[in-house]
Amino acid sequence: MELLxxxxxxxxxxxxxxxxxxxxxxxxxxxxxxxxxxxxxTIFKKSDYMSMIHVKFVIAVLMDSTLFIxxxxxxxxxxxxxxxxxxxxxxxxxxxxxLQNKKSSPVYFILIQIIFWAITLYDTYAWTMIMEFEFLKxxxxxxxxxxxxxxxQCLLHVAINIVLDGYKDVITKFYTIELLNKESAKIIKHKLxxxxxxxxxxxxxxxxxxx
Length: 211
Known about the structure:
Elements: H1 3-13, H2 25-44, H3 46-51, H4 54-81, H5 83-99, H6 107-131, H7 133-174, H8 182-204
């Protein structure tokens, strides 16, 4: 399985990177899941919030709110707001990836996933020993939200690298005799067109999704 394919597949399970024009039922279920659980976690953390000094309270609320809003946006944009643009972006990224000579191994991606979950599970275990089940009640949903943020960063890294590799390949061909060949010139023109459209779609989907 290619790196891009694996990243999109994992994101598809979380309704954040649909690989085809998505339906709205599954993303709605995921959104509802997050809204309900974040609301419940906020209620469970109410006593902790009330015990904080003003500055610490504001910082805690801002951090929790930012993470929650991010996860809403990262699901809403591809599934509801920019459905067509997102589907085209995924399609073009897949085409660009297939045109590249070198293959991207998912080993590195799998490794960082293992490291992320190893650290997360150890941290969860340590805090559960201190706070017992109360920790999961207050911060369990935050762990899932943090993973969505982490996965989104992985997606951003993969997508940008595909675009950069595409432009590097075009530049390399400009400095070779391949450009003198009409067939090669057509291929380069086609690839430049794909890259241009890809960047445009990338920017259209960047209103909250890519940051």
